[in-house]
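Good morning,

Attaching, inline, the backbone tokens for the sequence recovery test we're adding to the shared suite. The designed sequence is right after.
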């Protein structure tokens, strides 16, 4: 039974529920090889896949078309700001749609990235109607 339970946990995330079981904040500084980096602190990066669904969607939303595997502290603050911004109907509708599609809740990060970019292309953020 314990082996079966471990099979559903990947990188500290329960793949059945999406619950983050532990914090996966990683620090990728390599001070031993580069003395220049020893004086500047390495950025603290968070793996997007370990974040809740709403944050995963918003991470790809702020990626400007680029796939984000990690987010730094400033990007994480932007994700939290967007999540709390109830006046931004575009973002709130995107989150509502993501939460109401059962298959989307289980999607891998690359698929979330492709879907968010497709939505931004079809329904531009600036509100202009696309020509079909």
């Amino acid at each position: 039974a314990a082996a079966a339970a471990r099979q559903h946990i990947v990188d500290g995330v329960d793949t059945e529920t999406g619950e983050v079981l532990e914090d996966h904040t990683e620090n990728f500084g390599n001070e031993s090889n580069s003395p220049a980096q020893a004086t500047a602190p390495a950025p603290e990066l968070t793996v997007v896949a370990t974040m809740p669904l709403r944050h995963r969607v918003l991470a790809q939303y702020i990626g400007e078309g680029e796939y984000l595997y990690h987010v730094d502290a400033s990007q994480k603050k932007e994700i939290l700001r967007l999540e709390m911004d109830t006046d931004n109907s575009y973002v709130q509708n995107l989150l509502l749609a993501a939460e109401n599609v059962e298959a989307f809740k289980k999607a891998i990060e690359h698929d979330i990235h492709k879907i968010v970019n497709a939505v931004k292309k079809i329904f531009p953020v600036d509100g202009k109607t696309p020509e079909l």
